Amino acid sequence: MAQSVLLTGAGGRVGRAILSRLADAYEWRLLDRDPPTGEEPGEFVVADVTDEAAIREAVEGIDAVIHLAGDPRKTAPWESVLPNNIDGTRMVFEAAVDAGVEKVAFASSNHAVGAYETDERTPEMYRTDSEFRLDGTELPRPGNLYGVSKAAGELLGRYYHDEYGLSVVCVRIGNLTKGRPPVDYERGQAMWLSHRDCAHLFERCLEAEYGYEIVYGISDNDRKYYSIGRAREVLGYEPRDNSAEHADDG
Question: How far out from the chain centre does Cα 147 lie?
């Protein structure tokens, strides 16, 4: 029998990428604050991530959670990231533990480590394996309040794993685009994540065995300053796309 999976923020870019490839692979319960605009797989729950009663009801009978919901704006103010991204994420973890959920895959972001890029440490320095490549073992270094909220989510995941044994993987998502990657700037190519690789990565989050992990969500780009080594080793992630294959598309 297929796993039952709650996907919060199902109507967003990452949620649509996951469902475009995995709609028939799992028993889905989709949650989003906006009603669906088309035919969706499984059950659809219209609710806000800040609605504790709705979240607790949504996780009942679920095997795993992919938590994407929150304010995705990198310029989001504290008045939004606190209830939507931090309190909402804590609520999802708490409800998952109480409902006996086995795994939670949390959508973190490259913005949790955005301030590693400085005048002295530019993206170009991360192209090859070196001391500068970020691999998930480094401390968070957010460059905006949105990044702060994602770092907080990672710490919440650490707590719920250590305290309650919940399996948690935090995916620091790069630059998800539908179709070809941006070809006009270094950072966009280095951070690119294709829809195909995004769906595969979250499939591995559902299928692999792990305790607590932080991995980077990018494709296997030639230009790469985040390491995907841990995602390969722990999750069995095998990305198929590479931004360099589109270098001549611009």
Answer: 13
Task: Retrieve residue 229's tokens.
Answer: 């080594």
Which CATH number fits the domain that encloses residue 105? 3.40.50.720
Q: How far apart are CA 230 and CA 12, in angstroms?
A: 26
Spatial contact of 190 and 122, defined as CB atoms under 8 Å apart: no
Query: Which range marks the domain in which residue 109 is found?
Result: 4-246
Lowest mean pLDDT among 90-94, 125-129, 147-151, 186-190: 125-129
Query: Exposure of 134 by Cβ count < 10 A (0-12 exposed, 13-18 middle, 19+ buried)?
Result: middle
Instruction: Please list the alpha-helical segments (H only) found in the chain.
Output: 13-22, 52-59, 78-81, 88-99, 145-164, 186-190, 195-207, 229-230
Banded pLDDT at 183 (limits 50, 70, 90)? low
**Number of domains observed in the structure of the chain:** 1
What's the pTM?
A: 0.93
- For the stretch 36-95, pLDDT in tens is 887 889 899 999 999 999 999 999 999 999 999 999 999 999 999 999 999 999 999 999
Beta bridge partners of 66: 7, 105
Closest by alpha carbon to 68, among 144, 171, 196, 216?
Answer: 171
Assigned token pair, 2: 């297929």
The phi, psi pair for 201, rounded to 5°, reads -60, -45
Active-site residues, by number, are: 146
